Amino acid sequence: DVKVTQSSRYLVKRTGEKVFLECVQDMDHENMFWYRQDPGLGLRLIYFSYDVKMKEKGDIPEGYSVSREKKERFSLILESASTNQTSMYLCASSEDREPNYGYTFGSGTRLTVV
Amino acid sequence: GEDVEQSLFLSVREGDSSVINCTYTDSSSTYLYWYKQEPGAGLQLLTYIFSNMDMKQDQRLTVLLNKKDKHLSLRIADTQTGDSAIYFCAETSGGSYIPTFGRGTSLIVHP
User: Fold this and answer.
1) Which of B88, B97, B100 best tests the A interface by mutation, with the highest count of A CBs <10 A?
2) Quick check: A47 pLDDT over 90?
3) Smallest Cα–Cα separation from A92: which of B106, B38, B97?
């Protein structure tokens, strides 16, 4: 019954590495989102996508990029990882329709940059 | 920008009712949601309410919406240790599908 799958639960990378976080959903949702979650700061939106090959910046896009080549897959890319990108990363998807029944989240990827 | 506020912690005794409160500032909110996050996991949608509703009940969960005061609450009846988690309030408005999240309330259930 898995619906939004993030490829890794835990990841440790070195400063300066290029990091790919993968997210796949099997619900044919149009919208996909990447958030990071930090203690005391809640959820912050990094990037989102309403359609294939389409992307929009969220509140904190600096240091990140995304790719959506297929409807079901939305990748978050850290071009050159830094220690301040150590965080929990959450992918989510939702339908593009009214009424809107909210997000389905993945289990999260806890990334540590050393 | 628009804001969603929640208290950070709530501690209750097992078997009691829990009430988690949320206030929001956007008067054009259309949908309001409660999500639950268990330790080390992603968020799970618990329930939602449309802005034209005052109350929604789903088993042990009761959601109350006071639009005049822009106040949303989640009541969990007969709280169990398995209910210990972080609960996030969220709202969408103006045709946007991107919710504004509160910072979450950590519910601690003790024996």
Assistant:
1) B97
2) yes
3) B97
